[in-house]
Amino acid sequence: MTANTYPPATDRLRAPAALAGYEGGRGVVWLRGEHDIFNVSELAATMDQAIALDEGDLVVDLSGVDFMGVITVSVILKAREALRLRSRSLILRSPSAPARRVLELCGFYPSPPAGWDPAP
Questions:
Q1: For residue 115, is it within any domain?
Q2: In the predicted model, is pLDDT for residue 103 greater than 80?
Q3: CB-count exposure of residue 107 (10 Å: 0-12, 13-18, 19+)
Q4: Is 118 inside a domain boundary?
Q5: Is residue 3 part of a domain?
Q6: pLDDT tens digit string along 27-68?
Q7: Is residue 40 part of a domain?
Q8: What is the span of the domain harbouring residue 23?
Q9: Whose CA, among 18, 65, 72, 96, lies 20 to 30 Å from 109?
């Protein structure tokens, strides 16, 4: 995985839509910008990398999401299942308004399943 935090604001235009790293000793995947069918493979690869390179729970930070399609929820659910099979959890953190809306439509907000933390 990469650096401890998401790139500084000056580098975010060049940053990938999904970036894996560590924060406070915990694996984190930061999602930024738009997430839809066009970058779903990048997200899936980043999630797979984060799961493989760490043995703890995984945080998915949604604070920088401008748009999120339902296919993104599918990738997150697949990652959650992969983690569950390893006795680990996936924790959603700080969903933006667009991400929160998709999570609401999919039934994950405001009362998410156990192990999900959508609190801003």
A1: no
A2: yes
A3: exposed
A4: no
A5: no
A6: 999 999 999 999 999 999 999 999 998 889 999 999 999 999
A7: yes
A8: 9-105
A9: 18
